[in-house]
Structure formats: structure tokens, C-alpha cells
Fold this sequence. Notes:
Order of helices and strands: HEHHEHEHEHEHEEEHHHEHEEEH
Largest sheet: 7 strands, mixed
CATH architecture of the largest domain: 3-Layer(aba) Sandwich
CATH topology of the largest domain: Aspartate Aminotransferase, domain 2
Amino acid sequence: MAGxxxxxxxxxxxxxxxxxxxxxxxxxxxxxxxxxxxxxxxRVARLASNENPWPPSPAAVREGCEALQGANRYPDxxxxxxxxxxxxxxxxxxxxxxxGMDGVIETMIRTLVDPGDRVAVSVPTxxxxxxxxxxxxxxxxxxxxxxxxxxxxxEFIGIARxxxxxxxxxxxxxxxxxxxxxxxxxxxxxxxxxLFLDNAYVEFSGVDYRPLMDEFDNLVIGRTMSKAFALAGAxxxxxxxxxxxxxxxxxxxxxFTLNTISxxxxxxxxxxxxxxxxxxSYVRRWRERFREECPLPSSSSGANFVMFDTSPLTGDEMxxxxxxxxxxxxxxxxxxxxxDHYIRVSIGDSWENELxxxxxxxxxxxxx
Length: 368
């Protein structure tokens, strides 16, 4: 007899699902294939997911191909090759790893947070901090940013002082805002819990928060291989952590968190610093062109994207207009604490960037 074909939406067991997951969840960007089919466009500019449009480093590809030959064996649970390469790249810090930055965030919350513990989040920002904290039954407290999206250290400390863990993204997603290292130092000096500093886009900013690891025992700095190192599909995240935290994190982590291929690919990419720096320079040049040539107001950005104000249109309306011209960007309507008149536009390949600027000029051109 064939397996159960009952429609899951109609199952009497749906009552077993936690209320948290009956609706909502992470909001993904539109798929390029869907846009192409809907509008009959052969080539779609993918500027919605902050991806690196360049292929991975040849060194990363070689490492991945070699690693495939040993894929019949479980990976090294300590990912020693990757952590050793991280130490050579960054210096003698302590590291933990995860399946993307999301995996590091999720494991860090699981390590620290009991049901009912306070988790503070600076908003508007990446929605997964809140989702992961709620999954652990935390009490999530939001810390609103100023009108210019900067962080008020006084307000941050006032709400996060007694939180078990607090999340601050810099450069911030989706605003691109960079929080000065001195402000982070002030926060760390005043709070009683852990500060998770999400540095997913830090390579594009020119700001270095790593020296703070030598000053504070309550700082975790999250990083990713997805952006500057062009490994979004490999799903490799890591974090600088105080040494005392490593054994507890490892106990909370899913066994064999990173697969062999992803770990080796990431180690290979770290060996190509020159290629990464070339891409960072490319992003910075295009980031300035976006801000200078796009007719919409924009926020200063330290990341590989720019956020634009679409008023009087909503972000969703602008996304639909651009999709009709073969350009996919991200509406910011799903980001907690942000009004619905913003879009986030990634720096893509040159032809994608040119197509976006041409589409925006056409959309914003005054009608006779």
C-alpha cells in the first residue's frame, strides 16, 4: 500500500504543532525562476539576497573536490583544518562553527537561554535572532534604533543590561549602518550577559571589532563565509568566542555540525585573501555608484548592499515594478521595526547593477 497521502494541512495531528510555527517564519526573497516565468524574461538580475555574484575561489573548489573523495566517512567533529586556517587568517582566537551564521546563532541561544530568559535584539534587523530566541521560549525584548538607524548606547544598555544574550548587527541588515567600536565597548562594559555582534558584512566596512575580544569575556563575534568569500551555498558560519564558552557551545551543538566538504571548501577560501579583497573593493565601488546614480534616497552602508527609501511607494510596490523589468530586490516590509517603504538592493554582477540603475531611472522618470 502506498504511503499516507493525506494533505498535511488537513491532518488532525496539526494540533501538535507549536503555536509559534502555525504562521509566520523567515521570509525568503522571490526566486529568479519564478520572476522569469511570470514576466517572460530570459535573464534576471538577482539583487535580493546579498549574495556574492563571483564564483568561489579556485582553491576552495579544489579543496571541495578532494574532500568529496572522503565523503563516505563522518567529518572531523572538531573541524581542525578549518579552525586552524581561521587562526592563521585572523590570529590566535578561539573559534566555533555552525551551518551558516544562522546555525551559530541558533546554537549560541541553545547554549545560553532557558525558557523565559530575556534576549535583547536591536531593531530593525535580521529577523532570525528573534525567531531563534522564540524557538527557545525566550522573552524577546526589542531595542529600537534612532531615526537614522544608529544605535543609542544608553537605550541599548537600558533594555539589554540584564539580558542573557543581546544581538547587535553591524553593519546592520538591512540598513547597512555601522556601529562604532567605541559604542560596542561601552555596551560591553555595562551589560551583564553576552553580546552577540553579528559581523556577517564586516569585510565591506573597514571596521575591525576583533581587538575587543582581548578586552571582554562576554563578547561573541559572528562571521560567515557566505558573503565576502562567495560560499553561500556551502553554509559555513563561525564565531570568535571567549575560551570559557567553547566546551559548552560544543555540547549544545548538533553532532558533526559542518560536513566535510563545506569545512574544506571554507579552509581553501580563507587561503585566497587576495581574491576576497578584490571583491570587497569591487563592492565598495559599486556601492558608491548605487548611492550616487539611483534617484531614490539611500542610507549610508558598510555592507554589500544599499537600502533605499521608496516613498511614496511601498517596498512591495517597488519590488513588483522592478520585477517587471527583470530585477529582483528585497522589500524590507518583513523586517521588524522598519516602515514599509524601503527596499534592500545587493551589489551584483556588473550587468545586474547596470540593469538595476537603468530600471530605476525609467521608473522614477517624470511622466510628461
